[in-house]
């Protein structure tokens, strides 16, 4: 009997160490779309993380286009937790649909929107586990940031959780 109590106490202690289930940043019932007129070569370059679902996550990302369907991406990954980003991101479909092996929690990446001059972009996942707004300049222009937030809202993201 004493052994069973020790096992139960051990299991309860370990359960307290388990990470809490992540609450998606977007409603799973909401429709999601990607940028129909996405031009991969124009997306290449330096971006600043201006808002994400990870409190306090900031930094820069560098996207190098190889001209054959993939980027080498480095910098800060704000998906799940702030961590280093160094991965190959492959264009998987039209409209800015991308995939990475390790980066961005290994989830499909949708470029939800990018402005006409590629100054700001909204990225997210169909699952809603993460979302981010990237800007070429930091801080982002207020009008462009407002437009990117509207796109995130349209795609079901909880704007109160994007910081």
TrEMBL record:
InterPro entries, sorted: Calycin (IPR012674)
Keyword Signal: yes
PROSITE patterns xref list: PROKAR_LIPOPROTEIN (PS51257)
Signal peptide residues on this chain, from the entry's feature table: 1-20
Keywords: Signal
Origin: domain of life: Bacteria
Protein's UniProt name: Lipocalin family protein
Organism: Thioclava atlantica
